[in-house]
Specification:
Structural class: alpha+beta
Strand content: 5-15%
Shape: globular
Radius of gyration: 16 Å
Number of helices: 4
Order of helices and strands: HEHHHEEEEE
Helix content: 10-25%
Strand order of the largest sheet: 4-3-2-5
Distance between the termini: 39 Å
Largest sheet: 4 strands, mixed
Number of strands: 6
């Protein structure tokens, strides 16, 4: 977490083809409003259910590509041998036993897509959804709309980041994040309704 950072300060990615991290929820929503006006299409954050459906791509496994953890570095940018080199104080047994070639963020679409053709649904940056965070799914809407409550303090992020250990890069993993939190491991994915 880098509370003082903004997307303009990000020094993790080397170029414009990296994901845009260090954005707070209000900044992401402002961008989506701008994009909607600019294109004439309504862009938004996906609900948690939409995000998970798209990321899973009909896979029945914890990771969308299957159960073989040695394949992780072909499909995601997470905490692996490259990350271990820059995070020597973290015990190595928590890292993926492969090397994706990136210690921090990777250019978008550097890894294999899922069965729906979506890139980077695991790793690179965790992605903000439109849902308010709750401990479980008991009160979640059944129609894939976001779970919202008037006094929402935290929001759901999905997908894990470049610093995410293998257990965090599962499709079902969900973590809370405050609307004011910014960091080099947090970003977003846009959604748009089609006719």
């Amino acid at each position: 977490m880098q509370p003082e950072f903004t997307w303009r300060d990000n020094s993790i990615g080397d170029s414009d083809d990296h994901p845009a991290p260090c954005l707070r929820r209000a900044e992401i929503l402002a961008y989506l409003d701008w994009l909607s006006v600019r294109t004439g299409h309504a862009y938004r954050l996906p609900s948690e259910a939409e995000w998970e459906y798209a990321a899973r791509a009909n896979s029945k496994f914890a990771a969308f590509w299957g159960e073989d953890r040695t394949q992780a570095c072909a499909f995601q940018n997470g905490a692996d041998r490259s990350f271990a080199e820059v995070a020597a104080d973290i015990p190595y047994d928590q890292f993926a036993d492969c090397d994706d070639g990136y210690a921090f963020t990777a250019p978008v679409a550097s890894f294999e897509p899922n069965a729906f053709g979506l890139y980077d649904v695991a790793g690179n940056v965790s992605e903000l959804t439109a849902d308010c965070y709750a401990l479980g799914h008991a009160d979640a809407p059944r129609d894939e709309t976001p779970y919202l409550e008037p006094s929402c303090r935290t929001w759901v992020i999905k997908g894990g980041s470049w610093a995410g250990f293998p257990g965090l890069l599962r499709v079902a993993t969900r973590l809370p994040i405050f609307a004011t939190t910014a960091g080099s491991g947090f970003g977003f994915r846009v959604a748009r309704d089609v006719d």
